[in-house]
């Protein structure tokens, strides 16, 4: 058989692009290639190869990293109906190739972190396995380089280099689930926050949902992550005050009633206006309810004493610092219209 002879009225010579050098059995059949012809072309020394069950490479050499990713996605979506995810055009364009996966199938784990640009994640060629996240009911087993992970409710994927990729918090959780090296886990979690990929609370929430917070090396990494996240949030707070022309507060203080009880610690306090600011860096761990109760108790007590409390989250400081500066400025300006607050003692925290 001459392997250069077209196999059908619809020859495959136009399938030179990377995402068309990887095809499923159904796609080959749609191009007029029978199962027997596919088997013949995939024989030893032939021009094609079966890379995963039902997924074929239309060349004999090793796959590129991009071909591996497309192959894994195609394997995970066999028999499912592709549906474009939000932001992915229904028709392919020169810059956005056709995405071969429905909106509930996506690359996750270390491969996803590499696609998100994590320096601490291995290069794609170094990964023996590529994790792919699918809905729990789907009947699919891991095969070859494709490691199948399941989610009761898959997150909305992000499109990276034209491929559906799990958001960073979910990708991190799936990666951490398979890692035992504490140093690697800590590097990945730290880069997620320091690199601005996501907030610590989102990471801890996903780790908690995946029941990974009972592993000592993960707990240690999370403690470092939360400390790193608070430090970054404090830097953003200092920058917000300076860049938006707010009056300088006293930083990191405790408030007490004269000769009375401790009222609580604050990240910033404007004594003349009796305006307090607190960074809400809570993470959804087991003591989250207790922390929220403490936040609420402190706020209620301070406001009863005539002190305005502004709560700011790290995410809002990152995404909308000008808006948060306006909230603080409004609270400072409103001080002249309020009754004077009870006198409190301000102490270094």
UniProtKB/TrEMBL annotation:
- Residue ranges of region Disordered? 79-100
Protein's UniProt name: DUF559 domain-containing protein
